[in-house]
Design a protein that fits this description.
By secondary structure, the protein is mainly α. Helices cover 53% and strands 6% of the residues. An eight-stranded mixed beta sheet has the order 1-10-9-4-5-6-2-3. It starts with a helix and ends with a helix.
Amino acid sequence: MIGSASRSLLILSLMCLVVSPGIADGNRQGHSKHGSAFDAGLRSKPWVMEGLGDAPFPITTESAEVQRWYNQANALLHNFWFEEAERSLRWCHKLEPDNAMVYFGLARCGLNWFTMGSQGPELQRYKDFLIEAVKRKEGLPERERMYIEAWEAACLKGAEKPVEVIIQKLSQLSVKYPDDIEATVLLGFFNIGYGSPLANDALLNTVLKTSPMHPGAHHARIHSWDGVSSEQAINSCELYGKAAPGAGHSLHMPGHIYSKVGMWHEAAIAMDSATRVELSYMNNRLALPYETWNYAHNRDYLCYIQEQLGRAEESIQGAKDLIAAPGNPEMNPADGYWTQFPLLRALVKFERWDEILDGKTLKAANDPFAGMMFGSAEVIALLKTNRKSEAKERMRGIEVMLLQMKKEQGGADALPPDLPLPSIIQVAQAWIKISDGDRLGGLSILMAAAEEERKARESHSYPNDPPFDPWPVMRLVGDVFADGGDHRAAIEAYEVALKQEPNDSWCLAGLAKSWSALGNRVLAREYAGQLMAVWSGANPGLKPMTDVMALNLDALPRPVTPRPERAYNPAKLDHLGPSNWKPFAAPQLAAVGIDGKAVKLEDYRGKNVLLVFYLSDQCVHCVEQLAAINSKMSQFEAMNTVVLACSSDSPEKNRSNDLSSFGLKLVSDKDHENARRFASYDDFEDMELHSTILIDSAGRVRWKQTGGDPFMKIDYLLAEIGRW
């Protein structure tokens, strides 16, 4: 099943592509002549991408080139690479601007399995594409018209249950055209969560009999079984990445399944490979993390898997790199919940209490609920470092915040006892009771939290994509029982937690210790061996392992997995590129200054550069941006930053126009060669775009934004430079 985290990240990504309200005038400089729907998205020419898998989608066209790009776009859509699919389809549109199926393909980039039924404003541009497809559907072959009408019925006619509508329409299409395996694959996606996974599996296997390496069919099988009966998808996990090795998501999705069945090494190989493949793409194509929807999800999931493998330093460093990556000022503030949580989870899991409390490692989150979760981690850290009074004071503050939130929501003055809370808040409350000697009271809170978690897992509403929580709460129940000497109760709790999170090393360590305490060294040795297999590459000195090793059980590594797995060795993946985001080298700048001399980025090495591509001194909103930057010039200079403003205006014109009085440096890009290198040129409509790019003193791109309007949040640019 699709997780709420990945769905939210995609929605944020789509929002990044949406043109600002009120900007729909195709005659404005920098804006599409085709209308506002074309003002967003990637706007440079596509290229032939290798390793996407084979998924041709025949359409009516007079151009073999259009068909090739359409096939590439369809393969990209199967791999959830929506922004790149749109780029390929935009080129199709350039070649055949009235092709209805091209508009239909563009609509699918936003109206798909992820978003079907959503009503957010970020989807309007895709509905606009669909409207254009509907206008042109007459005269198409029946098969193509049925595709357009399926989306039309689901997305444009106010359907109360759009997914059910599209399932019905795709079913009709599949029956009418049984050889059209693309319709069957799409039906297989939309069927997920609607009916029997087994029946859906049978449907998708009809595709795989015809096309054994179809990327979409394997992808849909993985999602269909994910969280339902994950073992059933292992075959497709082994084949999906081979079918589409050039798509990061094809490597990512197997990691979901492997982590659910306790194959942590294989999960790490999958997720690390996915992260590296996507980062290589990002570096090659000047894409930043916030512009690539799956990057944060990849990196978060890899951090989680590395945690489970006991690779504490790698997971914590990855989480820190995720925070340090440039953010979108509208959608993904750098101190927000999504980027901070992987670090919080790892610090709690590895008991890095001093780092939680140092006031530097974790930053306050904007989201109040997330802030309470961070505060709860501080409560636990304070208790673990013998600062009980401070912990209680911090907990009281959290409870006041909870009460205030309830009042703001129009509730009663007191919190109802059944209010569901994030488990870390309940765990903090439980530890306070236990620290006061009220073990039963603490256990009662933990058991209630564990029961909430159980119900959420069984209803598939537990956030497990990856988990928000540092633990299955039942594992903490086991710890409390074990600390109290009740090892049989501890074993029962650990076994429950182990079913929820197979091969969880903390549970395995607890089972080894409790069985040893009960005198059963045979079972203790088995669990110790299982732990050693999972943590074969773990950092030395981690408490679960040192505690078990101190039992002198003479255990040998004993893997217990549904299938044999390879050992995770990050060095063997280095050929795919880096696994953590780092700023990438800026493209070459070869411009001309007002004095007619060459201007290169190398001329400013040792200084930060704010590089602005603008349209001309006749562009009103360009001048507004440059004036706003100029008003802050002293602050930029104080931060060792020079401003270069680049346009196609000649050096002679730059010398004489009003902008020459500003403190920034005007440079000329006569033939748009620099704009193209910096992806600040619309190849689809042959026009310049606005770009604002931050380059550090080593010549690396740290942040950028490109579009039909200039970036006006100048204070954000200063703050971003300050983060370096």
